[in-house]
Design brief:
With about 425 residues, the chain is mainly α. The protein is about 75% helix and about 0% strand.
Amino acid sequence: MEWYSVLAFLIGGLVLFMLLGLPVVFAFFAVNVIGAYVYMGGEIGVAQLVRNAVDSVQNFALLPIPLFIFMGEVLFHSGVAARAIDAIDKLIARLPGRISLVAIAGGTVFSSLSGSTIANTAMLGSTLLPEMYKRGYSPSISIGPIVAVGGLAMLIPPSALAVLLGSIAQIPIGALLIASILPALVLAALFFGYVIVRCRLNPALAPPYEVAELSWRERLMPSVIYVLPLMSIFLVVVGSIVAGVATPTESAALGAVATIGAAAAYRRLRWASFLVSVRETLRFTVMTLFIICGSITFSQILAFSEASAGLSAVILDAGFAPLTVVVGMLLVLMFLGCFMDQVSMMMITMPLYMPVIELLGYDVVWFGVLTLMMLEIGLATPPFGLLLFVAKGAAPPGTSMAEVIRSVWPFIAMALLVVALIIAVPDLALLLPGMMH
């Protein structure tokens, strides 16, 4: 059977099972079993598939996923993260769009402590959106920044999704975690600058209000007490990887210990919140391991049937410029982001993309950062961007989905600008990983 028939059969079967309402993970497993039986020698192929699935989740490199998730859950459920947001609120002076700036700064800090985009958006939305609406802020300058900065948790370590991408796409996880930091900070700075300029040009978007006069000591001390100690968790995770003293797995374990220690030091570690954190971590981890099983075995079937090699050969023989191929891949990810969740996008595209990227001679870490950027954009693209629904749920009653969608477009444009910057200046993504060697 020709490679394109194999590819059409596998992808078509996957789409069919998903249209029938089967969850993505189980749709993948169904296609994998059928594909293994048809293309890998019947029962022998299915038995090999089972062995491959077991091997795929026995990888020691996957341990950062539950540990990173656990860190964010502990900080979220213990209330330590909310205290840090309050401290940042006191630190920011009377700038235009002040509460929106608090959301961006606070969201960036929380992103460096939590690997969950949903937790980031939900916390910021529930704590800051009601205050913004009370102060007369326009939805475009209140909802937009919260959705945009919520996605940064996907880019800044500890990012469970970056570990998942590294596992599926066979990209060095430590390098990928570090590589996303600079693009994320550039993106946060663009968000910050946009809010200030927009609110200065049109003060009606965020009416100024009286802020209690605080001395410098009163402004700085809450951050010294509640923000700086938490940033040490980020330094433990990232610093140990960059310094080469710990693998990503070991740094994740250090980060989890540091997080527990921080919650205990603030006297916020309660048995009930600890159990909730563990339960949520286990739920997400089991789902993630199923995803990895399905995706890696799907990749192996594509490789065994030579569908991956056939597709790669067609793309390379077509004579397109290598950069054109990369941009086309990113546009496909952006299109899929309008309709699919990030995990499904990775599972479908990475087994097809990575062989092509390697044949074209591009740095896989660089492409991994570009992929994370497009996945982050997909969180906010209508009609099915996940964070749009999270923000709508957290927004005050009466907020329409149309208002939520309109508010995010400028921030999507800024994220695409950063994607273009990474393509034009690869060192933006590769500078920090280069320091690891």
